Amino acid sequence: GPLGSEDDPIPDELLCLICKDIMTDAVVIPCCGNSYCDECIRTALLESDEHTCPTCHQNDVSPDALIANKFLRQAVNNFKNETGYTKRLRKQ
Questions:
Q1: What is the pLDDT of residue 79?
Q2: C-alpha–C-alpha distance, residues 18 and 34, integer Å
Q3: Is the pLDDT at 3 greater than 60, yes or no?
Q4: Is 32 a residue whose pLDDT tops 90?
Q5: What is the DSSP string of the chain?
Q6: Could you give the CA distance from residue 52 to residue 30 in angstroms, rounded to a whole number?
Q7: Which of 29, 31, 28, 32 is nearest to 73 (CA)?
Q8: Which burial class, exposed, middle or buried, applies to 37 when counting CB atoms under 10 A from its CB (0-12, 13-18, 19+)?
Q9: How many CB atoms lie within 10 A of CB 8?
């Protein structure tokens, strides 16, 4: 790209606030309306003491309350199709 990066920058709205990568199975959290990868936010809620939202810090947010963000999932798919983006596999 023009900035010398090898690939297209990912639009901020497609980035998970937890892993900072393009969202996989985007879901919305009801307390503050932010979106995350399904796996990222479930893990964050389950690993916190009181199922605390990592963004607005509300407690007792059930993973069952997460809502699939179909609009965002479509946007991610469109971005991947247009750019050929593939998620980088990070070693844990």
A1: 94
A2: 11
A3: no
A4: yes
A5: -TTS-SSPPPPGGGB-TTT-SB-SSEEE-TTT--EEEHHHHHHHHHHSTT---TTT--S---GGG-EE-HHHHHHHHHHHHHH---PPPPP-
A6: 12
A7: 28
A8: buried
A9: 12
